[in-house]
Amino acid sequence: MADNDWKSRLNVVYSTNPDFEYETEAPENIPTLPPQQQELRVWLDRKSRAGKQVTLVRGFRGSEEDLRALASMLKNRCGVGGSAKEGEIIIQGDFRDRVTEILTKAGYKAKKAGGQ
């Protein structure tokens, strides 16, 4: 555990024992569901982004590596930048239709969400 990982120690009570070691739970390895069982939602978002539009893909269930691989594929196919973190994929720009089409062709259950 890194010494600067203070968020993992938030609920730990102070100890005067010099040999005390923090015991935190290791993050679970979540198995990645096959594409046919994934139910993804594709959103258009402008909040907290200085008026810029981004396409969000939410609902992915699986490992961070698989999430990054899916994000990389979407970014390459759309020809734009983006990122993958905290269980969601961020694609720069309004690509809801294109992302939904790409995900559907790849075997994922993808729907547009957000009402715009």
From TrEMBL:
* Domain (SUI1): residue spans on this chain: 47-107
CDD domains named among the record's database cross-references: YciH_like
InterPro entries in alphabetical order: DENR/SUI1_TIF, SUI1, SUI1_arc_bac, SUI1_dom_sf
Which keywords accompany this UniProt record?
Protein biosynthesis, Translation regulation
A Pfam family name for this chain? SUI1
Which positions are tagged coiled coil?
A: none
Q: Look up the domain of life of the source.
A: Bacteria
Task: Return the similarity comment.
Answer: Belongs to the SUI1 family.
Q: What is this protein called?
A: SUI1 domain-containing protein
